[in-house]
Fold this sequence. Notes:
- By secondary structure, the protein is an alpha+beta fold.
- About 30% of the residues lie in helices and about 20% in strands.
- The chain has helices at about 35-40, 90-105, 110-115, 130, 140-145, 155-165, 180-195, 200-210, 260-270, 280-285, 345-360, and strands at about 50-55, 60-65, 70, 75, 85, 215, 230-235, 240, 255-260, 290-295, 295-300, 305, 310-315, 320-325, 330-335.
- It has an 8-stranded antiparallel sheet with strand order 2-1-15-14-13-12-11-10, with helices on both faces.
- The longest helix has 15 residues, at about 180-195.
Amino acid sequence: MHMTPRPRWINAMCIGLLAAGSVFAAPVLTPPDPGIDALLQRYDGQVPGAAVLVLHDGQPVFQRGYGLAVLEDGTSVTAQSNFRLASLSKQFTAAAILLLAEDGRLTLDDPLKRWLPSLPRAADAITLRQLLSHTSGLLDYEDLLPPGATAQVHDNDVLHLLETQDRTRFAPGSRYRYSNSGYALLALVVAKASGQDFASFLKARIFSPLGMDASVAHQDGVDDVAHRAYGYSQIDGRWQRTDQSPTSAVLGDGGIYSSLADLAKWDAALYDTRLLKAASLRQAFAPATATEEPDVPFYGFGWRLNGQAQWHSGESIGFRNVILRYPAHRLTVIILSNRDGPEPYPLAQQIARRWLDTLQ
């Protein structure tokens, strides 16, 4: 089968982003790397692809684009390709809440109904902290959509759906259950507390200060996604565009688009206080609640925690993504893909192991 050459690129986009510090001895890979290329083989060629970045001590030690960002015109995946992050968005929503707490606009233990008073009595005991840690007990808004619904849902629509449900899955704060509803409501809280819409707040307080100039909480008809990667699913043996679903317009739980180039800047900011104060970063990465999910003993605020690993996956129609960090080793692996499968977390672990085996 004829395969067009894949993009081969590596640059120093992150050099100098981190404060100078000790440099760990680590292998520096430059394309091509047979081991990683073999792991990414299914993403290569005339198929929906993947963008892969490994950062060590603030520098990109491996990055490569595989396959296509747009099948219809043959646009290749690059470091600037912007993918829908899906649930990787939650770490930005959590950061927005932490910034507002630093500003004194809210506290993490505020009752949710201080900000969204239209919710029914069942929400009386829910706090912002519980939304951040998935312990609110809120019903999943996707389960409340009418059968066969095709119109896109927005964060405010999630609120309206929950206004009709005077019940929770369990007593707020009593246990963990992953909740997209909670993070959709947090986006509304950001808007109420800041006086800006959620997308504008992210741009003003996170994306612009960090130089993440291509990142956006995407709203159709409001903004354009530069260098956009479109999502695809394999249906009846061929790839078909499946870029949007009824829930794709909900911003707080999964609506951000970003690239390897921008996410490298985000990763750098998690090591120092250029964006969030040290106390806020500690809260984000502290075990807020235990979970029963595989590979996730604990959840923080927008982050899954497993030993030394901090990570989160992002899955929505046409996209599968993961960010995996080992801060003790200043090692991060990011994989963004514009296809329905496979889940890239195991792949990120395999890639990370190539460095961890040297750094241990």
